[in-house]
Amino acid sequence: MTAGALIRELEDVLPPGAVVTDPTSLAAYRTDRAHDPSAQAPRAVVRARSTAEVQTAVRWAAKHHVPVIPRGAGTGLSGGASGRSDALVISTELMRDVAVDERTRTVVVQPGLLNAELKAIVAEHGLWYPPDPASFAICSIGGNIATNAGGLCCVKYGVTVDYVLGLEVVLADGRVVRLGGPLIKDVAGLDLVKLFVGSEGTLGIVTEITLRLLPAPPPHRTIIAWFRSTEDAAEAIAEIACTIRPSMLEYMDRAATNAVEDMLGLGLNREAAAFVLAASDEQDPEGREIAFMLEALRRHHPISADETAAERGAELENARRSAIPAVEVNGRILLEDVGVEIPKFAQLVHGIEDIAARNQVAIPLLAHAGDGNTHPLIVFDPADAAEEARAIRAYGEVMTLAIELGGTITGEHGVGRLKRPWLERQIGADALELGQRIKSAFDPDNIFNPGTIFKEVHE
Amino acid sequence: MTAGALIRELEDVLPPGAVVTDPTSLAAYRTDRAHDPSAQAPRAVVRARSTAEVQTAVRWAAKHHVPVIPRGAGTGLSGGASGRSDALVISTELMRDVAVDERTRTVVVQPGLLNAELKAIVAEHGLWYPPDPASFAICSIGGNIATNAGGLCCVKYGVTVDYVLGLEVVLADGRVVRLGGPLIKDVAGLDLVKLFVGSEGTLGIVTEITLRLLPAPPPHRTIIAWFRSTEDAAEAIAEIACTIRPSMLEYMDRAATNAVEDMLGLGLNREAAAFVLAASDEQDPEGREIAFMLEALRRHHPISADETAAERGAELENARRSAIPAVEVNGRILLEDVGVEIPKFAQLVHGIEDIAARNQVAIPLLAHAGDGNTHPLIVFDPADAAEEARAIRAYGEVMTLAIELGGTITGEHGVGRLKRPWLERQIGADALELGQRIKSAFDPDNIFNPGTIFKEVHE
Questions:
Q1: Radius of gyration of chain B measured on its C-alpha atoms
Q2: Domain of residue A23, residue span
Q3: Is the CB of residue A47 less than 8 Å away from at least one CB of chain B?
Q4: Do B194 and A161 touch (CB under 8 A)?
Q5: Where is the FAD-binding PCMH-type domain (chains A, B) (predicted)?
Q6: ipTM of this predicted complex?
Q7: In chain A, how many domains are there?
Q8: CB A141 within 8 A of CB A75
Q9: Helix, strand, or coil here: B157?
Q10: A284 vs B contacts (CB less than 8 Å)
Q11: Are A162 and A301 members of one domain?
């Protein structure tokens, strides 16, 4: 069958307009936010409007051995949705239905709804969906499921997987299977729901999600601290993280702070080596958590450490959320997501400073510090091939450092295609091989997202 | 090889005393707390003292195609550790090492330590391991991992899987693999840690566990309410569960309450149809959660609904924990673990009353009501074959009812061998088949706990 005939067969079984093939439109599906330069425009995109359409597209792909790249909002940061010219992208961006059930405090949602949209919808019912990636305004729930996304409140309220009760999934053979459901406790059979969360589109395409919700979030109080030394900040963070349960414990270094200040002009301290943003939502009029955090921060020689007004707190939380786009203004970035045990946070930060100096690249750093999860942002000028090469070297060195410290190459963004070469070194050949057994058992022809997490068979 | 020579080969590769073969000792390994009458004494038991000994025993079993039944404290309630005469039991009861790390707020523990022992040890460090099965004084951490055990505080603090960061596992081929680790956030590769939790010994034997801990639990306030009608109690529970986050929301019916009162003599209300035990650990001097719960309970026509002193609260929590042994005094029990969405709790309770009446068996009921998870206890006299037959019929009818209500056959005890015939009807043939693919990929010769969750190949 010619390439044109193949696509016409797909168009024939889907509604008009569902299959995108014009080069201008396809270009928008070439990369995700990792901007992998080696990504290619896909052969075609199906913008599905229903589970049945996803199923139809998967059956076509399985029949013709066409690789499938599942895609949400395209905001992934590890190249898990990088396009390739032989592949079909199945996008869930148009699948946006949502239904809140106040009586069971759950919501059933399709994968294309954005995280912030979901939060707003459930808030109208006095409810709360906690996971809040910094990118929550632009990332989709489907993508959050694919990567088991974290965020700022996760230090107290957990990550995506902690809220997923049920999934509907299209398998590699085109079957639609429902896993879990609205029940809060259910141990009937292996936990396939939690296995699909974080599987980065390698096992199937999630078409519907049942999420557990909490009551509306309690009000919180916010502390801002500035430090002359990153070690002091790290020590204070470690003391807080092992003693209480802050509802937020974030960190930015000087370079990240300056990039944010350049963009937003919020009057941030451009001279400080480290910025710590901490919050407590404890409903205690004595404010013991806030008092403890202030003491802990002040014990470690800050420039200042003070509670801030709610409005200013929100502004600074937004500043922290804006750090990645703010740094991107200065060049292209290779985005890291490495994590360590919290007592090793200072070691990780120092090691990254060494890597930056040795490779002569800027690596501004932000962190969900209370989880030990950092985002070093390796900045380079894509027009400068030598600098790009140094940046790529630094990217690998940061992951190697994290592994040497007993840490992870990815805390919340996923392995994607970009971090796959380091995965085995972290988790070991045996764990990788166990994962490969599941991949092979679920998707024997390797049609789903080949090259993400697992090697392609032909490599 | 003769049976004797086979066992001698095992004895030769393990330390003296590790292999148990005398009939008196073996009898103690015949059943777990499900007391399945069809269980058989195993061929031998290895009481392992180290990962290496588990590994040696698994290799021997794999070489000779001997089924392996992993066993913790033997307190399982679904027959997941029922013995069989052709099998080797590998018991982890002697593996009891534990090491707390305050700086990372984690603990590394071997599977044989009891839940209550772990709680006490971490409490010495000012820390808290929340999951608290009613049986916490006698169940082991390894068993908790195997079933993804719940408990009383889970309504607010989650179940076992929410605290497991890392595992060491012996696989069917005798390899030892480490999964996850001490990191709070880590999405590198498929989440095999969460897959092993709740896998009931069908995928491997867990030999070491890394658990996340919380700061010491805050003090809580307790409410006791008595109702004339189970519907009223159920409505009040549903209202509380969808509005706030109680730290405990438990239920017992009249028959369970009377059994506990017979055993403990605490002055419980023998006439009330339903008992509700609710707690809040909100640190709010205005006590808004307690006030809300009292209002909600009082709106639904209770006999009484009052806050109780801390000491009496602890006594009644203990009463609730004693319900299963208290009911067991009246005969043998078939223990159910069915759950539904909370708004369907009253329907489930009524349906079970019908099943009890129709089958002329007593079915006292207790529940982690805030999770929709109930424990109907079907009581029968094992000397009365007709009554036993009616009890067995009722056992199946209760699961069928839960499935018809969109619920689960097991919320926290596991499928074991006793509930397996109902599993497919709940989760569907496709989900069961996906689980079977994982089982076959991890344990192709089906040596680990055959008949638990999955059918035996020869069936």
A1: 22
A2: 3-91
A3: no
A4: yes
A5: 38-216
A6: 0.97
A7: 3
A8: no
A9: helix
A10: 283-284
A11: no
